[in-house]
Amino acid sequence: HPAWFLLFGAAAGTAIMTKSVLGFFPLLIAVLFLAWTRRFRVLFSGWFLGSCLLALGWGGVWYAHETWVYGKVFLDAHFGWLIFQRGFHAEPQPWWHHLSYLRDLLVFYWPWLPVSVAGGALLLRSFRRLSDDDRLILLWPLTILAVMSAMQTRVFWYILPAFPAFSIWAARALGRWVPPARRRGIVQAALGGGLL
Asked: Which of 13, 68, 156, 188 fits 59 for a cystine, CB–CB 3.0-4.6 Å?
């Protein structure tokens, strides 16, 4: 339905406005997903391209304002230093430093890490027969991890947009492990424990 494209464009634009270049991930993931699922008619449709323009226009409001008010000072600080210098031109690092997000997940993503890894493994095991939903759930966090790991500056909160997908991975694994008759009781216990 066309309204979903408009909503997507507005949401992606808000992400760009509030998170700068990190806000481009919804657009990148959408393009990769449509290409992977061979939905080229949608990818090149006026509605999808319009939603991308809406995202850039709405997200660009902040950039336009800051450029108008601060001019070259903003451009040099935001694009020159924050994005290009920190992202691409920091000190050269050994290749294994680019795996630091995996180390961070090993340290900070407990107790959900093993459950999410199991859910991701379930998706990878059925790679050749993935549904479109599964492809999106797989592509989403892997795109964020791959792009952000390639950067010279890596901060753990930069990959937070991947965590909703990781939670879906965990839910997939738990859905396999927990018998249907016990799910309601376990959810109620988990909610009660969370409130404590």
From this structure: 13
